[in-house]
Amino acid sequence: MNILDKIVIDKRKEVILRKSLIPIKQLEQSVLFDRPENSLAIALRNSASGIIAEHKRRSPSKSEINQSLNVQDVATGYEDAGVCGMSVLTDAKYFGGSLDDLLIARAATKFPLLRKEFIIDEYQLLEAKAYGADVILLIAAILSKEEIKNLSEFAKSLKLNVLLEVHNEKELQKSIMPSLDMLGVNNRNLKTFDVSLETSKALSTLIPDDFVKVSESGISSIAAIQDLKNYGYQGFLIGENFMKTDAPGAHAKKFIEQLEAK
Ligand SMILES: O=P(O)(O)OC[C@@H](O)[C@@H](O)c1c[nH]c2ccccc12
Protein backbone atom coordinates (compact mmCIF):
# COMPACT_ATOMS: atom_id res chain seq x y z
CA MET A 1 0.00 0.00 0.00
CA ASN A 2 1.36 3.44 -0.91
CA ILE A 3 1.32 6.52 1.35
CA LEU A 4 -1.66 8.08 -0.44
CA ASP A 5 -3.76 4.95 0.21
CA LYS A 6 -2.77 5.10 3.88
CA ILE A 7 -3.66 8.78 4.16
CA VAL A 8 -7.09 8.18 2.61
CA ILE A 9 -7.86 5.25 4.93
CA ASP A 10 -7.01 7.42 7.94
CA LYS A 11 -8.95 10.34 6.49
CA ARG A 12 -12.14 8.28 6.15
CA LYS A 13 -11.95 7.39 9.84
CA GLU A 14 -11.18 10.98 10.79
CA VAL A 15 -14.16 12.35 8.86
CA ILE A 16 -16.55 9.90 10.56
CA LEU A 17 -15.26 11.05 13.94
CA ARG A 18 -15.45 14.73 13.06
CA LYS A 19 -19.03 14.37 11.83
CA SER A 20 -19.99 12.84 15.16
CA LEU A 21 -18.31 15.66 17.09
CA ILE A 22 -19.51 18.72 15.17
CA PRO A 23 -22.89 18.56 13.43
CA ILE A 24 -23.34 20.23 10.03
CA LYS A 25 -25.78 22.75 11.54
CA GLN A 26 -23.05 24.03 13.81
CA LEU A 27 -20.63 24.50 10.90
CA GLU A 28 -23.31 26.40 9.00
CA GLN A 29 -23.72 28.73 11.96
CA SER A 30 -20.09 29.84 11.81
CA VAL A 31 -19.79 33.62 11.40
CA LEU A 32 -17.45 32.86 8.50
CA PHE A 33 -19.99 30.76 6.62
CA ASP A 34 -21.73 33.45 4.62
CA ARG A 35 -18.71 35.22 3.20
CA PRO A 36 -18.82 36.20 -0.48
CA GLU A 37 -16.57 34.52 -3.03
CA ASN A 38 -12.91 35.53 -2.74
CA SER A 39 -11.49 34.20 -5.97
CA LEU A 40 -7.96 32.87 -6.19
CA ALA A 41 -8.47 32.21 -9.92
CA ILE A 42 -9.14 35.91 -10.55
CA ALA A 43 -6.21 36.95 -8.34
CA LEU A 44 -3.91 34.67 -10.36
CA ARG A 45 -5.19 35.93 -13.70
CA ASN A 46 -4.49 39.52 -12.63
CA SER A 47 -1.09 38.88 -11.09
CA ALA A 48 2.36 39.36 -12.55
CA SER A 49 3.93 36.79 -10.21
CA GLY A 50 1.17 34.21 -9.60
CA ILE A 51 2.61 32.91 -6.35
CA ILE A 52 0.49 30.85 -3.98
CA ALA A 53 2.49 30.37 -0.79
CA GLU A 54 1.95 27.43 1.54
CA HIS A 55 2.04 26.85 5.29
CA LYS A 56 3.47 23.35 5.80
CA ARG A 57 5.20 22.22 9.01
CA ARG A 58 6.15 18.76 7.87
CA SER A 59 5.32 16.25 5.15
CA PRO A 60 5.66 12.52 4.60
CA SER A 61 8.35 13.17 1.97
CA LYS A 62 10.48 15.61 3.97
CA SER A 63 9.44 14.89 7.59
CA GLU A 64 10.29 18.10 9.43
CA ILE A 65 10.27 21.39 7.48
CA ASN A 66 9.60 23.99 10.17
CA GLN A 67 7.94 23.41 13.53
CA SER A 68 8.85 26.66 15.21
CA LEU A 69 6.93 29.24 13.18
CA ASN A 70 3.67 30.80 14.16
CA VAL A 71 0.94 30.53 11.50
CA GLN A 72 -0.26 34.09 12.09
CA ASP A 73 3.22 35.48 11.36
CA VAL A 74 3.54 33.31 8.27
CA ALA A 75 0.12 34.42 6.99
CA THR A 76 0.68 38.15 7.51
CA GLY A 77 4.20 37.78 6.09
CA TYR A 78 2.85 36.17 2.92
CA GLU A 79 0.11 38.79 2.59
CA ASP A 80 2.65 41.62 2.98
CA ALA A 81 4.85 39.94 0.40
CA GLY A 82 2.06 40.30 -2.16
CA VAL A 83 1.38 36.64 -2.88
CA CYS A 84 -1.98 35.90 -4.58
CA GLY A 85 -3.16 33.56 -1.88
CA MET A 86 -2.08 31.09 0.78
CA SER A 87 -2.43 27.35 1.05
CA VAL A 88 -2.87 26.02 4.59
CA LEU A 89 -2.30 22.32 5.25
CA THR A 90 -5.01 21.15 7.64
CA ASP A 91 -4.12 17.45 7.85
CA ALA A 92 -2.71 16.72 11.32
CA LYS A 93 -1.32 13.21 11.13
CA TYR A 94 0.94 13.53 8.08
CA PHE A 95 1.47 17.29 7.76
CA GLY A 96 1.17 18.64 11.31
CA GLY A 97 -1.61 21.06 10.35
CA SER A 98 -5.12 21.76 11.65
CA LEU A 99 -8.34 23.63 10.96
CA ASP A 100 -7.25 26.02 13.69
CA ASP A 101 -4.29 26.99 11.49
CA LEU A 102 -6.79 27.94 8.80
CA LEU A 103 -8.87 29.94 11.28
CA ILE A 104 -5.83 31.82 12.58
CA ALA A 105 -4.69 32.61 9.03
CA ARG A 106 -8.23 33.82 8.19
CA ALA A 107 -8.40 36.10 11.22
CA ALA A 108 -5.07 37.67 10.25
CA THR A 109 -5.56 38.19 6.48
CA LYS A 110 -7.95 39.01 3.67
CA PHE A 111 -6.35 37.27 0.67
CA PRO A 112 -7.77 33.97 -0.68
CA LEU A 113 -7.03 30.96 1.52
CA LEU A 114 -6.88 27.41 0.21
CA ARG A 115 -7.73 24.53 2.52
CA LYS A 116 -5.01 22.00 1.62
CA GLU A 117 -6.59 18.72 2.58
CA PHE A 118 -7.38 15.25 1.33
CA ILE A 119 -11.05 15.92 0.54
CA ILE A 120 -13.24 12.85 0.24
CA ASP A 121 -16.54 14.06 1.69
CA GLU A 122 -18.86 17.08 1.39
CA TYR A 123 -18.58 17.55 5.15
CA GLN A 124 -14.96 18.71 4.68
CA LEU A 125 -16.17 21.45 2.33
CA LEU A 126 -18.56 22.72 4.98
CA GLU A 127 -15.65 22.71 7.43
CA ALA A 128 -13.48 24.58 4.92
CA LYS A 129 -16.12 27.30 4.61
CA ALA A 130 -16.80 27.48 8.36
CA TYR A 131 -13.10 27.89 9.17
CA GLY A 132 -12.47 30.62 6.62
CA ALA A 133 -11.27 29.00 3.39
CA ASP A 134 -12.07 30.47 -0.04
CA VAL A 135 -10.64 27.65 -2.13
CA ILE A 136 -10.54 23.88 -1.85
CA LEU A 137 -8.22 21.31 -3.35
CA LEU A 138 -9.55 18.16 -4.99
CA ILE A 139 -7.01 15.45 -5.77
CA ALA A 140 -7.91 13.39 -8.85
CA ALA A 141 -5.75 10.47 -7.71
CA ILE A 142 -8.10 9.75 -4.80
CA LEU A 143 -11.49 10.59 -6.37
CA SER A 144 -13.70 9.11 -9.10
CA LYS A 145 -15.07 11.30 -11.88
CA GLU A 146 -18.47 11.22 -10.17
CA GLU A 147 -16.97 12.31 -6.84
CA ILE A 148 -15.04 15.15 -8.50
CA LYS A 149 -18.28 16.34 -10.11
CA ASN A 150 -20.35 16.15 -6.93
CA LEU A 151 -17.71 17.71 -4.67
CA SER A 152 -16.84 20.53 -7.07
CA GLU A 153 -20.49 21.41 -7.70
CA PHE A 154 -21.14 21.43 -3.96
CA ALA A 155 -18.06 23.65 -3.44
CA LYS A 156 -19.35 26.10 -6.06
CA SER A 157 -22.72 26.25 -4.28
CA LEU A 158 -20.78 27.34 -1.16
CA LYS A 159 -18.96 30.03 -3.20
CA LEU A 160 -15.67 28.17 -2.87
CA ASN A 161 -13.14 28.14 -5.73
CA VAL A 162 -11.98 24.69 -6.82
CA LEU A 163 -8.39 23.72 -7.60
CA LEU A 164 -8.31 20.24 -9.10
CA GLU A 165 -4.95 18.49 -8.87
CA VAL A 166 -3.67 15.93 -11.35
CA HIS A 167 -0.40 14.16 -11.86
CA ASN A 168 -0.86 12.37 -15.18
CA GLU A 169 -2.86 12.37 -18.40
CA LYS A 170 -5.36 9.78 -17.23
CA GLU A 171 -6.26 11.81 -14.14
CA LEU A 172 -6.55 14.92 -16.28
CA GLN A 173 -8.87 13.34 -18.86
CA LYS A 174 -11.39 12.20 -16.26
CA SER A 175 -11.32 15.55 -14.45
CA ILE A 176 -11.99 18.26 -17.00
CA MET A 177 -15.43 19.70 -16.20
CA PRO A 178 -16.97 23.17 -15.94
CA SER A 179 -17.31 23.20 -12.14
CA LEU A 180 -13.54 23.62 -11.69
CA ASP A 181 -11.77 27.00 -11.58
CA MET A 182 -8.12 25.98 -11.67
CA LEU A 183 -6.25 22.91 -12.84
CA GLY A 184 -3.13 22.13 -10.86
CA VAL A 185 -0.39 19.79 -11.97
CA ASN A 186 1.45 18.31 -9.02
CA ASN A 187 5.09 17.88 -9.96
CA ARG A 188 5.40 15.51 -7.00
CA ASN A 189 4.07 12.00 -7.41
CA LEU A 190 2.18 11.54 -4.13
CA LYS A 191 2.73 7.80 -4.33
CA THR A 192 6.50 7.78 -4.81
CA PHE A 193 7.48 11.40 -3.89
CA ASP A 194 9.48 11.79 -7.10
CA VAL A 195 9.47 15.45 -8.19
CA SER A 196 9.90 16.71 -11.75
CA LEU A 197 8.79 20.00 -13.30
CA GLU A 198 8.63 18.11 -16.61
CA THR A 199 5.24 16.81 -15.43
CA SER A 200 3.77 20.33 -15.63
CA LYS A 201 5.32 20.91 -19.03
CA ALA A 202 4.11 17.61 -20.47
CA LEU A 203 0.50 18.11 -19.36
CA SER A 204 0.23 21.83 -20.18
CA THR A 205 -1.10 21.49 -23.73
CA LEU A 206 -3.83 19.09 -22.60
CA ILE A 207 -5.39 21.63 -20.21
CA PRO A 208 -8.10 23.75 -21.91
CA ASP A 209 -7.44 27.50 -21.85
CA ASP A 210 -10.54 28.35 -19.82
CA PHE A 211 -8.88 26.98 -16.66
CA VAL A 212 -6.15 28.81 -14.81
CA LYS A 213 -3.14 26.49 -14.88
CA VAL A 214 -1.25 26.02 -11.63
CA SER A 215 2.06 24.23 -11.25
CA GLU A 216 2.54 22.69 -7.80
CA SER A 217 5.54 21.44 -5.81
CA GLY A 218 9.29 21.43 -6.19
CA ILE A 219 9.48 25.06 -7.38
CA SER A 220 12.41 26.97 -5.92
CA SER A 221 13.86 29.25 -8.60
CA ILE A 222 12.86 32.27 -10.66
CA ALA A 223 14.13 30.46 -13.76
CA ALA A 224 11.74 27.55 -13.15
CA ILE A 225 8.77 29.94 -13.00
CA GLN A 226 9.79 31.75 -16.16
CA ASP A 227 10.10 28.42 -17.88
CA LEU A 228 6.64 27.29 -16.66
CA LYS A 229 5.08 30.61 -17.73
CA ASN A 230 6.11 29.76 -21.28
CA TYR A 231 3.94 26.66 -20.97
CA GLY A 232 0.90 28.76 -20.00
CA TYR A 233 1.07 28.47 -16.21
CA GLN A 234 -0.30 31.43 -14.24
CA GLY A 235 -0.13 29.98 -10.72
CA PHE A 236 2.83 28.55 -8.81
CA LEU A 237 2.32 26.78 -5.51
CA ILE A 238 5.40 27.02 -3.31
CA GLY A 239 5.74 25.46 0.13
CA GLU A 240 9.05 24.14 1.28
CA ASN A 241 11.22 26.75 -0.42
CA PHE A 242 9.65 29.43 1.82
CA MET A 243 8.79 27.32 4.87
CA LYS A 244 12.29 25.96 5.39
CA THR A 245 13.49 29.50 6.19
CA ASP A 246 13.04 31.36 9.47
CA ALA A 247 10.97 34.09 7.74
CA PRO A 248 8.79 32.68 4.94
CA GLY A 249 7.08 36.03 4.29
CA ALA A 250 10.36 37.89 3.86
CA HIS A 251 11.63 35.19 1.52
CA ALA A 252 8.42 35.25 -0.51
CA LYS A 253 8.75 39.02 -0.78
CA LYS A 254 12.31 38.84 -2.08
CA PHE A 255 11.32 36.07 -4.49
CA ILE A 256 8.42 38.12 -5.90
CA GLU A 257 10.59 41.22 -6.26
CA GLN A 258 13.12 39.24 -8.27
CA LEU A 259 10.39 37.70 -10.39
CA GLU A 260 8.74 41.02 -11.18
CA ALA A 261 12.09 42.63 -12.01
CA LYS A 262 12.63 40.14 -14.83
O1 LIG B 1 6.71 22.18 -0.68
P1 LIG B 1 6.58 22.22 -2.17
O2 LIG B 1 7.44 21.21 -2.88
O3 LIG B 1 6.80 23.62 -2.71
O4 LIG B 1 5.06 21.81 -2.54
C1 LIG B 1 3.95 22.59 -2.15
C2 LIG B 1 2.65 21.88 -2.52
O5 LIG B 1 2.58 21.80 -3.91
C3 LIG B 1 2.56 20.50 -1.89
O6 LIG B 1 2.59 20.65 -0.52
C4 LIG B 1 1.30 19.72 -2.30
C5 LIG B 1 0.75 19.68 -3.55
N1 LIG B 1 -0.33 18.88 -3.56
C6 LIG B 1 -0.51 18.36 -2.33
C7 LIG B 1 -1.50 17.51 -1.86
C8 LIG B 1 -1.46 17.16 -0.54
C9 LIG B 1 -0.44 17.61 0.30
C10 LIG B 1 0.55 18.47 -0.15
C11 LIG B 1 0.51 18.85 -1.49
UniProtKB/TrEMBL annotation:
Q: Cross-referenced Gene3D superfamilies, in alphabetical order?
A: Aldolase class I
Pfam families, per this entry? IGPS (PF00218)
Tell me, which GO biological process terms does this entry list? L-tryptophan biosynthetic process
User: What reaction gets catalysed by this protein?
Assistant: 1-(2-carboxyphenylamino)-1-deoxy-D-ribulose 5-phosphate + H(+) = (1S,2R)-1-C-(indol-3-yl)glycerol 3-phosphate + CO2 + H2O
Domain annotation Indole-3-glycerol phosphate synthase: ranges: 4-251
Question: Recorded E.C. number(s)?
Answer: 4.1.1.48
- InterPro entries from the entry? Aldolase_TIM (IPR013785), Indole-3-glycerol_P_synth (IPR045186), Indole-3-glycerol_P_synth_dom (IPR013798), RibuloseP-bd_barrel (IPR011060)
Q: Does the keyword Lyase apply?
A: yes
Entry's transmembrane regions? none
Protein keywords: Amino-acid biosynthesis, Aromatic amino acid biosynthesis, Decarboxylase, Lyase, Tryptophan biosynthesis
Q: Which is one GO molecular function term here?
A: indole-3-glycerol-phosphate synthase activity
Q: In which pathway does it act?
A: Amino-acid biosynthesis; L-tryptophan biosynthesis; L-tryptophan from chorismate: step 4/5
Q: Which protein family is it in? A: Belongs to the TrpC family.
HAMAP family tied to this protein: IGPS_B
Name assigned to this protein: Indole-3-glycerol phosphate synthase
Q: Which organism is it from?
A: Cellulophaga baltica
List the taxonomic lineage: Bacteria, Pseudomonadati, Bacteroidota, Flavobacteriia, Flavobacteriales
